[in-house]
Design goal:
The complex is a heterotrimer of chains A (398), B (199) and C (251).
Chain A lengths: L2 H22 L17 H17 L8 H15 L7 E5 L6 E3 L4 E5 H6 L3 H16 L2 H25 L3 H39 L6 H15 L15 H14 L11 H6 L3 H10 L3 H12 L7 H15 L4 H13 L7 H12 L3 H14 L6 H7 L10
Parallel strand pairs in A: 1-3
Antiparallel strand pairs in A: 2-3
Helix pairs in contact in A: 1-6, 3-5, 5-7, 5-8, 6-7, 8-9, 8-12, 11-13, 12-13, 13-14, 14-15, 15-16
Chain B lengths: L4 H19 L5 E3 L5 E3 L3 E3 L5 E5 L3 E5 L7 E8 L27 H14 L3 E13 L2 E11 L5 E11 L2 E10 L3 H15 L1 E2 L2
Chain C lengths: L3 H25 L3 E7 L3 H4 L6 E5 L2 E7 L5 E3 L1 H21 L3 E6 L10 H21 L24 H7 L3 E12 L1 H12 L10 E9 L5 E9 L7 H11 L6
Helix pairs in contact in C: 3-7
The chains are: A mainly alpha (398), B alpha+beta (199), C alpha/beta (251).
Chain lengths: 398, 199, 251
């Protein structure tokens, strides 16, 4: 390596290190309720850009605008956020995955997949409290600064590696890259742990059963384990393993001298009930069959099953879509069971008709189709169903 | 609370697959009004209006003004256990998704397209008015579609599906409800009505 | 260390190459271009004198480019630009005897299915389409092979929803993303050039603007601005950017 190159490298490295050091020591803002970051700070910049994303969220076709549901969720957020209530704006997003997120400017998103999975108010509250923990801990801005510094350091490393004639410098860069990204993810896992504890502590302070947090993780763990695909590697998981979070929260709950036993108001089920059919249909549309089956089991075992007939119908739908060996029979059983339970939709009879066709039982199929047309004389697929009732079954092998 | 990278990647993959339906083709052609065109050796189509035509392998996308403003897609010869948008094959490791199975009933065929479009990032995808038909010795199913782009733009259109030699063939069209759907709906309905299939 | 002479030679070559690269970087960073298209009748039939124009949901965001290339949004710069650019646009329109109506934003609690929302969502789709086929030159045979083809896209007569809300004759859409090189990035750029590694991209100004006739829905004018020297943080810079952004708008 030439002398100029070497000295340029050293000079550059020093300069960059200095610049990096200058921004990484930035102190966090003293966050008072109702306060916004100064405009000329990196956080102020993020808030401003996020205002644009918030506008996009407000016109998203996925935004659930139902007044009663929003009022209920907002009320619960306020209980958990206390004096920071006014700083947080909640958006309910219609997506069938367990997710909630918190932006530094107070925009909280909660996905309908999370609402569907929370068993009671205490579990939903724990999730909201967790997100509020991210907000109060200023995790987004910490993460942003960390990302910025890591990326800057990496670009410098990249230059040094590219400028160096030896292959080993390139290797060193790869190692550095790996370590840097791994440390970013670890940072984020620490935030998750901290927020879990915040959600836990707020739940306890509000008199909810302290065990509901880990029970929610346990339910999610069961879904995770039902997945028959490879899981992402643990080094890069942005979140600590569900199992670890479960154990931590359980230990915390057991260490409490006294424990509230409240799981929350009946308002919870009143607010969510009108949406269960839509959200379950969205859930089935994901076609992640094993997870959906675990979820349906859990919904069915709740102390007050919202309407058992609908759950059984959707169980049949999962088997119908999955088409694994034996699923034709399972689908029929589920639809038949639904017809004996309260709250099954009229589509159950149509689905049963289709299911019987798949096992080449034309007579039962036509009976079920006739029942469907009787229940829904103005069905938009009447012509189709009448056509199927005269159509021979096609043989198929699985 | 939980970011599922695999899911995001898959979503991106399907979106790419949908985009690729357009971009992996060679130079686009022009479909002239009232001239019969053979599409992917399955469909025989005659259109009262002009289209730009992007040919892929096993699929074609036609558009008048750009695919965000109107989109007519043909999918030909989808084999048993293959993804409706060509995104892989159903295997033991990859069991979940809208994969075609030979002998599917009309409701299942409809769900394939609806679930596939939802996976590709469209919101509130709905299907109505599923109707059977017979053409050129095949049983066809058609239905109306409505869906929303992530920015909220509402699209409407319709789809036609049928099985031929144990393989699935699909034609679907959609355009924004604002202006474009109404402008072309009569022409496209006529195309769908006049369409024929090779034996 | 064995052959000092060769090293000395390479040292000189390095120095010149570094200088050359730095010059190239400077030259590249001084690039500025616009891409103006108008509809077929624009020059002949359109007279915007005395007509009113409404700026609809302008999207302006300024960033500071970090050493790594990461874009950090800057609220203070953005606020300045959101004031200065519309003011500069207004001044140009004024000069040409058209008037600018107050900026229009659809109210946040209007659901996404409402008509004005749908028209603006379609406007987004149309802008993306024109950008793809006119600016990026993705071929669209229904619009002919010529790259200089006049514009022929429309939002349809539904734009009357916007005309009723604003009372304007034309709708102007402005999207601007503007980034500025941070000190860290500048140091890295110099370092990269000196080490002959390559030319790193610095801050860039990028804008798209369209004008839609609110009677027919036709997009009558479209421009893409790309500039690495533009600056929206001060009045003069905003004026210069506005005049480049509104280039070819024959008022």
């Amino acid at each position: 390596m030439s002398r100029l190159r070497r000295s340029a490298l050293i000079f550059g490295a020093l300069l960059a290190t200095l610049l990096l050091a200058a921004c990484s020591s930035q102190p966090l803002r003293n966050m008072e309720p109702g306060e916004q970051p100064a405009e000329d700070t990196d956080e102020g910049g993020l808030w401003d850009a996020l205002a644009d994303s918030e506008r996009a969220l407000q016109r998203s076709p996925l935004l659930v605008r139902d007044e009663a549901l929003n009022r209920y969720v907002n009320g619960l957020v306020c209980r958990y956020a206390g004096e920071y209530c006014k700083d947080i704006r909640v958006y309910i997003i219609r997506r069938p995955y367990f997710n909630a997120s918190m932006a530094p400017n107070g925009v909280m998103q909660i996905w309908t997949g999370a609402l569907l999975r929370a068993e009671n108010e205490a579990q939903l509250g724990f999730v909201l409290g967790h997100e509020i923990g991210h907000f109060l801990g200023q995790h987004s801005i910490k993460q942003w600064r960390r990302t910025k510094d890591t990326a800057n350091a990496l670009s410098l490393l990249q230059l040094i590696a590219a400028g160096s004639p030896s292959a080993s410098a390139g290797d060193a860069f790869d190692v550095a890259l790996f370590a840097a990204y791994a440390s970013l993810f670890k940072y984020s896992r620490d935030h998750e742990r901290e927020s879990d504890l915040h959600g836990f502590e707020r739940s306890v302070a509000l008199g909810y059963d302290a065990n509901q947090g880990w029970k929610l993780w346990q339910a999610l763990l069961a879904e995770e384990n039902a997945r028959d695909r490879r899981k992402p590697s643990s080094v890069f998981a942005t979140h600590p393993a569900t199992e670890e979070r479960l154990t931590t929260l359980r230990r915390e709950a057991e260490a409490l001298p006294t424990n509230g036993d409240g799981t929350g108001s009946a308002e919870f089920s009143d607010a969510l009930r009108p949406f269960l059919t839509t959200w379950l249909a969205d859930e089935v549309q994901r076609r992640n069959y094993p997870q959906t089956l675990v979820l349906l089991d859990r919904l069915q075992s709740r102390p007050e099953v919202p309407n058992a007939g609908m759950l059984a119908y959707f169980r049949g739908e999962v088997f119908r879509k999955r088409r694994a060996p034996g699923d034709d029979k399972r689908a029929i059983d589920a639809y038949v069971a639904a017809l004996d339970l309260p709250g099954y939709p009229a589509e159950t009879m149509r689905a049963l008709g289709y299911a019987f066709r798949r096992v080449e039982d034309i007579e039962s199929a036509n009976e079920a189709f006739a029942d469907y047309l009787e229940a829904r004389p103005n069905a938009d697929d009447r012509a189709l169903i009448e056509h199927l009732m005269t159509e021979p079954v096609r043989r198929h092998e699985d | 609370m939980k970011t599922d990278f695999a899911r995001t990647l898959k979503r991106l993959g399907i979106l790419c697959a949908l985009v690729l339906l357009v971009s992996c083709s060679g130079a686009p052609g022009l479909v002239r009004p009232n001239e019969p065109v053979r599409v992917q050796r399955v469909f025989e189509v005659q259109s009262p209006i002009e289209w730009a035509r992007y040919r892929g392998v096993g699929n074609e996308t036609w558009t008048v003004d750009g695919t965000a403003l109107n989109r007519l897609t043909f999918l030909a010869n989808i084999r048993d256990k293959h993804h409706i948008f060509g995104y892989g094959r159903q295997t033991r490791r990859n069991p979940d998704g809208p994969f075609f199975r030979t002998g599917m009933e009309p409701n299942e065929l409809r769900d394939l397209l609806v679930d596939g479009l939802a996976q590709a990032g469209f919101a509130n995808v709905g299907a109505r008015n599923l109707q059977p038909g017979h053409r050129d010795g095949f049983t066809t199913y058609r239905f109306d579609l409505d869906l929303r782009a992530p920015n909220g733009l509402i699209y409407q259109g319709h789809a036609l599906m049928f099985e031929r030699r144990e393989r699935l063939n699909v034609a679907f069209w959609f355009a924004p409800t604002e202006h474009y759907h109404a402008r072309d709906v009569a022409a496209v309905e006529q195309m769908f009505a006049d369409m024929h299939f090779r034996q | 260390m064995q052959a000092f002479g060769t090293h000395a030679g390479s040292l000189i070559r390095h120095r010149f190459a570094g200088l050359l690269l730095a010059l190239v970087a400077l030259f590249l960073s001084a690039c500025s271009s616009t891409h103006v298209r108008t509809d077929a009748e624009f020059d002949v039939a359109r007279d915007l004198g005395g007509k009113s124009v409404v700026l609809v949901e302008p999207s302006i965001q300024l960033f500071e480019m970090q050493a790594s290339g990461l874009m950090e949004p800057r609220a203070d710069w953005t606020r300045a630009a959101r004031e200065k650019l519309p003011a500069a646009i207004n001044a140009i329109l004024d000069q040409r005897k058209a008037n600018l109506k107050p900026e229009y934003r659809v109210s946040a609690d209007l659901p996404s299915d409402a008509r004005p929302r749908q028209v603006l969502a379609l406007n987004e789709a149309v802008i993306n389409t024109i950008f793809t086929h006119s600016y990026l030159h993705v071929p669209l045979p229904t619009r002919g092979a010529s790259r200089r083809k006049p514009l022929s896209w429309t939002l349809g007569p539904g734009v009357s929803a916007i005309r009723e809300e604003t009372g304007a004759d034309y709708m102007l859409t402005v999207i601007v993303r503007d980034s500025y090189t941070s000190t860290g990035r500048a140091a890295l750029m110099i370092l990269a050039a000196a080490l002959q590694i390559g030319v790193l991209q610095g801050g860039q100004q990028f804008g798209v603007a369209t004008l839609v006739d609110l009677r027919t829905g036709d997009v009558v004018w479209f421009n893409v601005l790309s500039d690495s020297l533009g600056d929206l943080r001060d009045v003069e810079g905003a004026q210069a950017t506005a005049s480049k952004l509104l280039k070819g708008l024959p008022l």
